[in-house]
Amino acid sequence: MFCTQCGKEIPDNSPHCPFCKHSPAAPAEAQAQTINSWLVPAILVTILCCMPFGIVALIYAARVSALAAAGNVAEAQNVARQARNWTLAGAICGAAVYLITWSFYIVMLIFALDSSR
Question: Does one domain contain both 63 and 103?
């Protein structure tokens, strides 16, 4: 079993973590907690918006379920937070690039139409 506070491995029959003195949660209680891995949004950001940020988000998102299954809930939440941050950064950067690109196209179209008169 792993400590939910510090993430270190502790004996199954231990009433508290010998490293941080935190009382571990019951196994059923630890498994009941679900952590959003941000895997689907990371895939969408990778495909539609910003591939470099999306790939980093995918790497973090893929680690969340393995950490949660191992009982390392604190680290799984930290990795999920990193996946969320990279996913949002990729979405914002992708949206900014699309906005700048389409603004450039519209300005060029206006100039092309104006110069043809």
Answer: yes
